[in-house]
């Protein structure tokens, strides 16, 4: 009897443990639901977004989703399409599947980006050229593996191994490994390659041997998609197939995916927040940054009308400003038919577009030229400035060769970055309000007493928290760090009585700082969230913020 009771207790304990574990996992994913907001409230012009939608609708678009500051500000679907309907990814899968699975493998220490590929593909070890291929080359189209394309011939009609690759006869992985030739020394050129990406999938899968999730499909489902709240019915990958080669369960990462627009946006949100989801670090920040930064491999050709971006690891990056009106921290995944996930961290912006080709070769437009002309540029031009007093939007588009936050903001010295991550900020919360630590470098500039609008440019940086700059007396030394814009670098900051922080953060409006000579402490007069020494309540838009002079530990 005692033994039976112990067995029952153990069974109940196990059930309770499993229940709590599932509850915790479900809580992480289900705690986040997309909320909606008006474009105006997030610094976008509805009129310009409507114009963008009308233009895209005439160019084979099925879905347009625009998210800013964690709110859906614009969502449109063509007839017979909708938020619950999946759309094919084409080569957008190279980011969503190839880049994401590589990132997890790097995070887990299963491989290194500069590993020779033969460590995971033994058949390549003794080949004179294949033995020189690194994981980095496979992820950046610089391995020299010939692509399975030829003279615009339809895939299924291609001759030889190239047609067999697309027909999957017998399987695309064996063909990529054994039949696809190497057409240049690895790492010396850029040449787009679907078979090269297939071998990245092969190498990543090989690195997973002996782990809990030995295939990419399972790996992504358990480590990424379910934790970020994407249901199984909202995505699929690998043409719905798994190929077993040398005991490896191989899944296509170059195409063959199908995702809802909102599922794609969730992946974008995870990457925007550097691997953090609702306070939990799913992937170490450094590995997110590793796959999104320029990988250092040769750049693609950029003929007029086709501004092709540089390679991250499975992702594309605008690090050198090839898309002239888009901030340089932007990254993207893209596929045939101009499927696109565009993320711009400095704007807190996520955009998903699905449909057919946007570009028109007759107009001299290439794949990327069509995206830039018909999506990226109009999107940047829909960004507007917000009035400090009544929240009305000034219909002033950023139509310069670069947006105003690029060409009129001081370039920081090498090694200095202005970073503030709301997901990592120290916070204290109640059901009705929240306090957030605001440490960091903030865009800032001196102003005149009668300044009542956010200046269009000349931004420098100011350390927060920090004292009013320029003050040196028996009570206080000037310990402020100011990175001054050339437009005001010679100004005596000690003598100024007003300043403004840049007003491009969620729920922020232009603020004035009044300098009080007796104590030298600025008092901000503003609506919500942050920009100055001290602690500010993060309140609902339209409510006044209340200043707290003391910072809790960790700020």
Report on the structure:
- The chain is globular, with a radius of gyration of 26 Å.
- The chain is an alpha+beta fold.
- The chain has three domains: 31-85 and 260-406, Beta-lactamase (3-Layer(aba) Sandwich); 89-258, DD-peptidase/beta-lactamase superfamily (Beta-lactamase, 3-Layer(aba) Sandwich); 408-555, no CATH class.
- Helix content is 25%, strand content 17%.
- The chain has helices spanning 2-30, 46-57, 93-107, 135-139, 160-167, 172-178, 194-207, 216-225, 261-272, 285-292, 367-381, 404-407; strands at 35-36, 61-68, 71-77, 87-88, 235-236, 243-245, 248-250, 258-259, 276-277, 280-281, 310-311, 316-317, 331-335, 339-344, 349-355, 385-386, 393-394, 427-429, 434-436, 440-447, 460-464, 482-483, 498-501, 512-514, 523-525, 535-538, 547-548.
- The longest helix has 29 residues, at 2-30.
- Residues 20-25, 385-407 and 503-555 have low confidence and may be disordered.
- The chain has an eight-stranded mixed β-sheet, with helices on both faces. A four-stranded antiparallel β-sheet has the order 18-19-26-27, with no helix packed on it.
